[in-house]
Design goal:
Length: about 500
């Protein structure tokens, strides 16, 4: 780990008022109230205390996160981007544990400002001190501009940028400008970890003072040289000429070159040079090349998107100079025990049936999930649930870029739910879903029961759900005793 004495404090992000006795008292009161709110949430079973405590603490002391961060000697890591944040954080936490570190993180995925503050509240004593060596925070793309100045991250990791909830984030370049502002404010002692295979992410803040590390996939003989039809960044970010690809691995992610201005993928610091299906078909066997050497690694989670998540986590570990995690044996042990984060192709045992819960929120995540589902044998019984809450986004135009048509030849039953059930039903209708096998039930409990009833014993029900319906449906399963609370995992 880097020398704490050489690390800039949170004051690097702006002038901080002296800590007076009244300021310390206010912080202690905010932390005590937040901890009480967390305990009450769990006792009353109105949540796991992953968000509400932060709202309570911030109401009492708006600078509670900044004060707790300034009082901590831990390495502070922020992971943001459109997809893969939760899984990347779990992988990076596993690598940290393998190196013998105490890790504090928002493991439940509560990544808005109040969720981040809740993590700090529950990890700190009443003086704001956290007994941890690695403070690891997944942060929503639209929220990171509020969190980073208060936290003062030592490592800032961006997974990717995809078109996602336009009403919340704006278009791609609006999101990129927000991330650039954060990177440009980082001190030279900080490290930015970027996905080199994403042309927009790789181009962020080229003149920033922070050190840069790039991760990506460098496998020869890729299956395709053309981005999928729903891909986003397919033009050069410098001159807007159409990019040429030596290899495409996922959506627009790959080894690219602009034939007009020469802009190309940066050199990879952490490169996945081979990818093979694992013997059990539930993950990937990869080879990773780093400055410390090459080694094989089993990623026990399916899909190329999880290969990217593993590469991101390894690059994050390298940025932090964590003790041990990039040593091959420790890296393999830490990854071997990983299980899907809740809602990420999470397998759940319902009475007599297997349920696969998949959180999908944009064309890329939906298409990648569909590909993994279709690799599994058997007919597909489906429950699709989407809502238009503030955190889900109100614009559902992206559904028309999801390749739902590829599901139709194997569709056996379909239930559609959520506050936008009729709109989702229209999309499935145009994809070719027969009306005779489709039921529209906006209520989540009724929809789950109906979908399970339509799934014969011994077969699988696949649930594709946005954030709010996913939490609601999983909450129903929790009350029925099928799954633990997400905050306990």
């Amino acid at each position: 780990m880097r020398d704490v004495a050489s690390r800039p404090s949170a004051t690097s992000w702006g002038t901080r008022a002296p800590v007076t006795p009244s300021a310390r008292a206010r912080l202690a009161l905010a932390l005590a109230a937040g901890k009480a709110a967390a305990a009450a949430s769990r006792v009353l079973r109105v949540g796991g205390g992953t968000s509400f405590p932060g709202a309570v603490a911030r109401r009492i002391d708006p600078r509670v996160l900044q004060k707790a961060a300034a009082a901590s000697d831990a390495d502070k890591v922020v992971v943001t981007g459109s997809n893969g944040k939760t899984t990347t954080c779990r992988m990076l936490a596993a690598l940290g544990h393998a190196g013998g570190l105490r890790v504090t993180q928002n493991r439940s995925g509560s990544n808005l400002l109040q969720g981040v503050i809740s993590t700090a509240v529950q990890g700190a004593d009443l003086r704001g001190r956290m007994d941890t060596q690695l403070l690891l925070l997944e942060v929503d793309e639209a929220t990171v501009r509020l969190v980073a100045p208060q936290l003062g991250p030592d490592t800032f990791l961006v997974t990717n940028i995809f078109r996602d909830q336009l009403d919340r984030f704006g278009e791609l370049y609006t999101m990129a400008r927000g991330l650039e502002a954060v990177i440009e404010a980082l001190p030279a002692s900080a490290t930015v970890v970027l996905n080199a295979d994403d042309p927009l992410v790789a181009s962020l803040a080229p003149g920033a003072a922070a050190r840069r590390l790039y991760f990506g996939i460098g496998v020869e003989g890729a299956d395709t040289l053309v981005p999928e039809h729903a891909a986003d960044t397919i033009r050069c970010v410098r001159c807007q000429h159409l990019l040429s690809y030596h290899a495409v691995y996922l959506s627009h992610l790959g080894d690219y070159l602009c034939p007009q201005c020469g802009n190309a993928r940066p050199r990879l610091d952490v490169a996945v040079t081979s990818v093979r299906p694992s013997p059990d078909g539930g993950g990937s066997e990869i080879t990773v090349e780093t400055p410390a050497g090459a080694f094989p690694l089993l990623v026990p989670l399916p899909g190329v998107h999880n290969v990217y998540n593993a590469a991101a986590a390894l690059a994050g570990a390298m940025a932090l100079s964590l003790p041990g995690p990039l040593e091959p044996a420790r890296a393999r042990r830490s990854m071997a025990g990983l299980r899907p984060a809740f809602g990420r192709l999470e397998e759940i045992r319902a009475p007599g049936r297997r349920v696969v819960l998949a959180f999908v929120k944009n064309p890329t995540s939906y298409n990648a999930t569909l590909q993994e589902v279709l690799r599994q044998p058997g007919r597909k019984h489906v429950l699709a649930a989407h809502s238009n809450t503030v955190v889900d986004g109100e614009d559902f135009a992206w559904l028309w870029d999801v390749d739902i048509e590829q599901l139709m030849p194997r569709l056996a039953s379909l239930v559609i739910s959520g506050t936008r059930a009729e709109e989702v039903n229209l999309r499935f209708k145009y994809a070719g879903a027969p009306a005779a096998m489709t039921q529209v039930l906006p209520g989540r409990s009724a929809a789950l029961d109906t979908a399970l009833a339509a799934t014969p014993p011994g077969e699988s029900l696949y649930i594709f759900a946005g954030y709010t319906p996913m939490r609601e449906i999983r909450g129903i399963m929790q009350r029925r005793g099928w799954v633990p609370a997400s905050w306990k995992e």
